Input
Amino acid sequence: MALQVLHNNIRNVGKTLVMTGDFNIRNSNWDPNVHFHSIYMEDLIAIADSLDLDLASPINLGPTRFVDNYRDSNSVLDLVFIDPNNKGFNKHTLNPDIYLPSDHIPLIIDMGINDENIDIMIQAIKKDSKEEEAFIRDIIVNVRSIDTLNLKSQEDVQRCITLFTTAFKDT
Output
């Protein structure tokens, strides 16, 4: 579901330097203990490609998730996608010594960020101003107009969330 949401909203994602996390996709492309290709792998690679990112390999290969039962095996689920021209490409490390209570180990990434990669837009309303007062008033009006009494399905909740998002964006 997360891949579908990302795929459907990719046009709203700006310049991306790195995409990383627990993708929960077992695949032979990044895990030598897996002997199959996941149907989701191609979607993930396509999303990364549309962001001009490539799958990076850690310096020290190994599992990123450790299991505590005999039925499963340790696996590679945490991945790093990064701009292949970035100085940190293929230079991240897995640090199994500090995974603490989590079953995933930290990924340590040292990457370059150049000024030309930073795209900042700040929108602000001065505190205690008439504009802030009007903004808060409009948010209250817009949020109060959303019907939250008959939320009976996932679609109803999603519709409600969309209305909340729209209320804030419009205001």
